[in-house]
Amino acid sequence: MSSMIRLRNVCKNYQLGEEIVPAVCEVNLDIKEKEYIGILGSSGSGKSTLMYLIGLLETPSSGKIYLDGKDISKLSDSQLSDLRNHYIGFVFQSFNLINRYTVWENVLLPTKYVKGRLDFDPEKRAEELLKETGIYERRNFFPNKISGGQQQRAAIARALIMNPKIVLADEPTGNLDSKTGDEILNLLEKLNKDMGVTLVLVTHEPNVAERTRRKIFLKDGKVTQKYL
Amino acid sequence: MGNELNDLIKAAYSDFKRNKVRTALTSLGIMIGVLSVVMLIALGLGLKNYIREQFENLGTNLLVVLAGSGFSGGGAQSFGPGLVSGIRFDEKDVTKLKRISEIDYVVPVFFKSSVASYNGKKETGFIFGTTEEIFSLLNLKAQSGSLLSKSDIQSASKDVVLGASIAGKLFEDPSAAESKIIRLENQRFRIIGIAQKKGDNEMDNAIFMSYKTTFGSLNPDKEFFTIYLGVSSKENIPIAKKKAEQALLERYDEDQFSVTEQAEILSTVNQIFSVINAVLVSIGSISLLVGGIGIMNIMYATVTERTKEVGIRRAIGATQKDILLQFLTESVLLSLFGGLMGLLLASIIVLIVRAFFPVAINLFSVLITIIVSSSIGIFFGVFPARRAAKLPPIEAIRYE
Fold first, then answer.
1. What is the mean pLDDT of residues B353-382?
2. Is the Cβ–Cβ distance between A126 and A132 less than 8 Å?
3. ipTM
4. How would CATH label the architecture of A33-62+76-224?
């Protein structure tokens, strides 16, 4: 199977006052279709930065990122935005739904940023996804009126509405109790298995890390062989 | 594209609904700005129309001969006809001007304000010592009775025609004023008719009589300040003007009199009004500027408040342009809403005030309102919107 995403010698530095702090350093990584990968490390290890680099929300300070063989550093803002829209779905620790929109509107939001024509009926797909994630009954609620678990389900439905090839989940269970967290993980894994979506999970929790099929350990921004 | 705009407007609307008070207060600034500008334009326009109507009442093919250098000369000394140059016209000038073939009427006017009394009632009016031709020149008709005739003029009769207003003030029933005797400057005059209302203060309070009648105690020097010339056609106005000037130059110096076209006077007046109007509108525009700054202020606050939302939108596929347009739509709608409210309020005020004062709203004010308030929305919205668009997605999404 060919690599969807390839990272070659990728570094990301942040400027903190006068000082330049490397968050991710010399990372080489290949992500293949339908994989279930865990990016693991303690807090501050650079795992979130790595995820945002993969998610095209960050650009590397040095090194190259290839998406289906294409060098993304050559892409414009609108091309990158278009890839984030079609290719990638994000799930965050703090859910990141827009509170002034209902669950239904939140799930449909990515379809509003499609340039050109949609090749599916967005409302029909939103209905399917909300049924799949089990919160169809809550579709007209505002996010702050439903539980954390339900919000994360809505966020997963939003991540999936454009039929992405890859879902990036940043500590998706971090704000949930363990039972709800398990349910969310089950749901994500089901999507990986049934729909063939590549799943990249960022976590620092060992019991969550256990479940991933391939593990990448990060320490001080570098990939290491050992966990912690 | 239409759909996109629809989504943008819907999103902005949902935000306005959530912040009703803030939306209303922000628009209020623009509303007041637009209100003041539209009202000032309306006022300027109304006054201009009013003055134009006054001039049109005089008829179109009119030349005015004034003592002094007149309107067209410009400068402060040109006002106060006759006072500087010291000349007055007399019957000889009238006779001379009558010989010009392009001129149909030569109407000399002796003008004096005076108090007329009837039955113990006293009212101030304006004596017009003139000829019967003034009525056709000014397009004046009789409301009751008759107007002065040629023989009245020639015989220096003691017959007078009253303007509608002064007749109304002196008589409870003006239609019964005919052949009543009024006293004026210690003389007795017989009213033969009442002229129609003209809407002009001097005309409506006029006491028309033969210029020859005034040659007694009223106008012992037999002089006129003004001579109106009725030209046979519009095309002949330049020739008539030239000939009249030549005729008068035989007796007077160039700077002692002026022959002015009505159009010239009108354009001078228009120029004065345009300047006044421009000054007023620029003062009014200051409030628009303040309103615009208010919008910018609120938009900066909105961008900060919604930093996280910007990050989320960027993550799910919004381009910088999408974000820019989202905030720009909001500021333009805020401003446009304020502008339309201001226009609406101005229209209502104009409708009410119109009964007392000449004001007018035209298509120009409406277009200007829409264009100006949208531009303010764009101009003052683009800085905050750019800030939102340029936010680094990661920092935005982590913002709490």
1. 85
2. no
3. 0.94
4. 3-Layer(aba) Sandwich (3.40)
